[in-house]
Specification:
heterodimer, A: Formate dehydrogenase/DMSO reductase fold, 71% helix, B: alpha+beta, 10 strands
Amino acid sequence: MTELDVARHNPLLDPRLLAWGWEIPVYLFLGGMAAGVMILTTLLMARPGARSPALRWLPFAAPALVTVGMLALFLDVEHKLYVWRFYLAFRRSSPMSWGAWILLLVYPVSLLVALASLDDPQAGWLASRLGRAGRLVEAARAMAQRRAAGLRVASLAIGAGLGLYTGVLLSTLAARALWSSALLGPIFLVSGLSTGAALLMLFPVSHEERHLLARWDLWAIGTEAVLLLLFLVGLASGTATGQAAAGLLLGGPFAVAFWLLVVGAGLALPAALELLEGRRLLRVTPAAPALVLLGGLALRFILVSAGQT
Amino acid sequence: MTRRYAMAVDTLRCVGCNACVISCKTENDLPSGGFRDWIVQEVHGQFPSLTLQIRSERCNHCAETPCVAACPTGASHVAAGGTVLVNRRKCTGCKACMVACPYGARWVHPDGYVDKCTFCLHRVERAQQPACVETCPTRSLTFGDLADPASPVARLVAHRPHLVLQPEAGTRPQVFFLT
């Protein structure tokens, strides 16, 4: 028997080391989704052929999602007046510092890509709605169209960086056994691609575009399932602390939520629906993308809170 | 020679009276609910053959600092003698250091910055002992320069069996528990 008695009653630390609440998983979810939207809309816009009006507007979703996500981050920061301190330093060893600067790069790149994606009537409408700023928009769009190829590469690179970093942020914190796996970066990246595809599928994109998104989503879901399996195998076959961490998801307090919400509702069910829809055995509904979004959010909530247990 | 501040905690002398905790709160004017040091009582075995270890714990002022590495603004830093400090004017309260620390040594001050043990560096610089060390009625706590082989703390660590907390974390803690 081992009994521990700690003469400390700090409601902020004990009995669980809960430092990060709901704000961090919400931010990781929205940031990952924004990364997915950046990568997927860039790839879709790079295809030859016709594009739906909805798809031309959708690149704007990336900066919008990042903005809401950064608002969640802001709510988490304890000393809100000092937030500007993030941008007075760049610290190589701190993933959060990398993230703060990546988020800043997302805005110009994603906004320019989004402007370049609009067709002339859409851009005209946007410029007319913005009054004097409209001329700035037109100039930015002209610049973005001239440099479209470079912007596409930047958008893909920064999207991948954003998606990876949301996982690396957790995986470098070796003090939390559940997070100390290098697989978290790729897991969050493919989950971001999957949730990004799901978000795009909720909008009236063309039949062909939706079909393509569903196919990419299936690949992302399959990859995510394999990576999650490797992640759990890696922990469970490692040290005692790793085994205990894997136990949280395999049979512990988070097992039901993990298997039901993440694996069942978030991966298996939408994959099955998308397969059947793809073979025209089932009518296309928003059910599959909605389930993917639910699963992505649940994955982040479970990993962030289980890691701090 | 560079100093390496360290502390030896004699678990055979400590009776868990909490005087170190109270003197720290008083010296550093800590708010309600905030602690920079604390007492852990660990009981092993099956009644009646039980063993009890009492430890006065605090930040381990590690030689390898995951908290400093995780800090995005440079608020967490390594100061004189390897002491790990937080510059509250740079701290945004993002709590990355708190999740990076394997010991739960850090907490959020109500004023919005992350707070922790400083080895009472403000006293040490005036050639005084840290408040907890000075108060300890059983003289369980010994503070000093580990780099100086003649210092009491270096002699204790050299000659007494001791352990550090969670050595597997690879942080090379500088608070040594004499057993």
